[in-house]
Amino acid sequence: MKFKNRIIRASDIELKEKVVAINRVAKVVKGGRRFSFAAIVVVGNGNGIVGYGLGKANEVTDAISKAVEDAKKNLIQFPIIKHTIPHEMVGKYSGGNVFLKPAAPGTGVIAGGAMRAVLESAGVKDVLAKSKGSSNPHNVVKATIDALSKMRAPHLISQHRGIKMEKVFNG
C-alpha cells in the first residue's frame, strides 16, 4: 500500500524547480556538428510532493521548460515526519541504487548531487543517503523517486495491521 493514493494536480500547488543536469549532445551532419541539449529537472512543493522530468531541445532554456512540464506530470507524494523520512528504504532504477535513512533533527541532507536535489525539493531537511552503483543523474534521480514512492506513513501501517501507533515503532 503506497502513500500515493490520490492524483496530484500541479496547478493546485506551488512548485519550486531545480535543474539537476544539463547534457549537450552533438549530431554530426554534413556541415559540421549540430548541438542539442537534454535537461533533467526536479520539482517539489517542499512538503512531501516531488516529481522529475526530462526535456530535450536545441536551446537550454527550451529544454528546461520542457523538463518542468514533464516533471509536473510525474508527481508523487510521500510522508514526511519531523522533517525526515519515516523509515529506511532502498530505491532501484536500472544501474542506480540508493539507500535512504531517517536522521535526527539538525543533521541536514547528507546526500550527493542528484539525490540532494530530489530530497531538498521534496522538503526533507534531515536525512542520511548513500548512492550505490551508477552515478548517472538519470538513474540516481529515478532510484531516489522510487525509494520515496515506497515510503509508508506509520499511521497507515498501524491501521493496516490493526495495532497501536506505539507498537509500529517498537514491534
Key descriptive features of the protein:
alpha+beta; 171 residues; 2 domains; 8 strands; 4-stranded antiparallel beta sheet; 4-stranded mixed beta sheet; Double Stranded RNA Binding Domain
How many structural domains are formed by the residues? 2
Rg calculated over all Cα atoms: 18 Å
Mass-distribution shape: elongated
Number of helices: 5
The major sheet is characterized as: 4 strands, antiparallel
CATH class of the largest domain: Alpha Beta
Topology overview:
Blueprint: E1 16-29, E2 32-44, E3 49-57, H1 60-73, E4 75-77, E5 89-93, E6 96-102, E7 109-110, H2 113-122, E8 127-133, H3 137-149, H4 154-161, H5 165-170
Parallel strand pairs: 7-8
Antiparallel strand pairs: 1-2, 2-3, 3-4, 5-6, 6-8
Helix pairs in contact: 2-3
How would you describe what is shown here?
The chain has 171 residues and is an alpha+beta fold. Helix content is 30%, strand content 35%. Strand 1 (16-29) and strand 2 (32-44) form a beta hairpin. Mean pLDDT is 89; it is low at 1-5.
